[in-house]
Amino acid sequence: MAFKIFNPISFIFLIFILLAPIGHAKRSTPSDKNSSPFDFIKKLKALKTYQENYHMKPSCVVDDATISKLITPRCGVPDIVNGINYMQPRGKKHNIHTVSHYSFFKGNPKWPSTKTHLTYRFLSNVPTYAIAPVAGAFQKWESSTHFTFARVQTNQNSDLEIGFFRGDHGDGIQNAFDEKSIAHASAPPGGRFHYDADDKWSVEPAADAFHLETVALHEIGHLLGFGHSLINAAIMYSTFSHGEVKILNADDIAGIRALYNR
């Protein structure tokens, strides 16, 4: 049955339930007793920003389209935290006709100009079948950037690490819908890229699983300093569907060149 527009009481209740951790901020706890009316206003503002990010009518109403997007599987890297919209593009115009849609992390963290060769390792919890797709994703980024990548053994030090984990872990990223956050990665020089081991993954496109290489391409973008893109065609768009396969988009390439002044 389709969701309807809610009456005022139900609307306010749902706002508090859905949006307390919107944008993957820290979840509220029973000790959070100092909320004020201003907190509610901030949550409404966050909802409006969320709707604008995903090209929905910024109505501040939790309608069908908003609910559908809120529960769509996505990357666990947050877009809106404490009222700051990290999905806001910080790039420049590509040319007179084309506008950038990519974004970077706060402060534009990136690898130093002297660090163009990055090593990566797979943790012992990575299934064997996942290794080739991730390696393929690194190769695709290498062919489109000034970076080179090389795999080292699990017991060696590396710039980047790939692992599979269950439940809450890693960088303290908490999703309002934990089961829908399928992977996350840290900004430079953090180097951590984790898949959610509770989800189903596939090497080839499958209608009931997430595509390993596509998600790896996205998370490696975060490892290099990307935030999320506003356009669905970009690899750095934040949501994923079962069976969805993507490659690097012109917006992704323009963004990495802008970040590293290449």
From TrEMBL:
InterPro entries: MetalloPept_cat_dom_sf, Pept_M10_metallopeptidase, Pept_M10A, Pept_M10A_Zn_BS, Peptidase_Metallo, PGBD-like_sf
Organism, as annotated: Salvia splendens (Scarlet sage)
Amino-acid positions noted as binding Ca(2+) 2 in the UniProt annotation, renumbered to this chain: 159, 190
Presence of the UniProt keyword Nucleotide-binding in the record: no
TM segment ranges: none
Residues the entry annotates as binding Ca(2+) 3: 196
Cofactor section: Zn(2+); Ca(2+)
GO MF, one annotated term: zinc ion binding
Cellular component, GO, one term: extracellular matrix
Signal peptide: 1-25
Cross-referenced PANTHER family: MATRIX METALLOPROTEINASE, METALLOENDOPROTEINASE 2-MMP-LIKE
Protein name: Peptidase metallopeptidase domain-containing protein
Cysteine switch, short sequence motif: residues: 73-99
Active site: 219
Sequence positions that bind Zn(2+) 1: 169, 171, 184, 194
Cofactor note: Binds 2 Zn(2+) ions per subunit.
GO biological process, one term: proteolysis
Keywords for the protein's UniProt record, in alphabetical order: Calcium, Hydrolase, Metal-binding, Metalloprotease, Protease, Signal, Zinc, Zymogen
Ligand binding (Zn(2+) 2): 75, 218, 222, 228, 236
Residues of the Peptidase metallopeptidase domain: 107-262
